Amino acid sequence: MKSLALALAFSLFIPAATQAAMPASDVIGQAVEGFVRPAYGDLAEHAAALETAVEALCKTPSQDALDSARAEFGQVAQSWSKVELIMFGPIREGNRLERLLFWPDRKSIGLKQVQAALAAKDPDAADADRIAGKSVAMQGFGALEYVLFGTDSGQLAGSEGAYRCSFGAAVAGNIAAVSAEVRDAWNRTDGFAAIWGSPGPDNPVYRNGSEAVTELMGVFINGLEMVRDVRLRGFLGSRPEKDKPKQALYWRSQGTTASLAANLEGLHGLFRASHLTDALSPEARWIAESIEIQLTNGAEAARSVQGPVEEVLADPARREKLDYYGTVTSSLSNLFGVRLSGEFGLTAGFSSLDGD
């Protein structure tokens, strides 16, 4: 995956139209305090609740306990979807990103490994301490979704699902542990947040404010591209016969559209928290207003689409809402990558998620 190349003209974040300086440290500080830290805190809290729910299921199997664990999975997956587009910083250390979500997995590597572990009753896969040493494809949301929603998952409601539940508890524990690690790393006063928020010539990562704000803008531009071109178009074809419903993230748990909605809700929260609107001239405020409206509309459209992916794609009304979601993300890419970038004196270089 090639990263977006962005260049800023000034060491301070200065809108070209107004020349009213806004220090990069203020922009980044607002983003971290207003969104990043709370979002990772929410993820860690929900992940801990998921771990507790799966452990309770293993201790006293029942349909109610299984339903509770499945509901908690949906909550954690949405919490993750809100913050997952921040693909730098502590999440990149120790393969944490891949350990939480190994996707796209076009060759079904994770599925095959999880199925093999279940068939062999691999003791390491069912151990909370040792699973962290297994393949990253077996440690995160994809693995746990199959355990809770995949073939024969109904066994979890009875004693015959004992090993499967132990495996699920280990994965849930790993998700909780990684989530807590990332939360704690962002909360450290001398950690990555301090590095990102204090650019300068002695900074080992961000030599000036331009580079620091570039990182923030990349979340929006690269994130929208990924959500549209990889997440949505990975299963939504140009016409029905080209659809690939089982390529949709969270299709087993029917959480695909909720995740797509949460992706935009996360970007919306980050946009508001960073107060980028305050740096715009009155004449350019329409850009921010359009961004706000379209982020809201796109998320609402995705949230209104419910049901199994196969049924959604076969229903013209629900399919139209997914098409609208794609249109909105394309418009947002223009608003962030061209309009907003232009106001802030940015130039966006080549960006591609899939190739040259």
TrEMBL record:
Compartmental location: Cell envelope
Annotated ranges, domain Imelysin-like: 37-333
Pfam families: Peptidase_M75
InterPro entries per UniProt: Imelysin-like, Imelysin-like_IPPA, Imelysin_sf
Major localisation: other
CDD domains: Imelysin-like_IPPA (cd14659)
Keywords: Lipoprotein, Signal
Name of protein: Lipoprotein
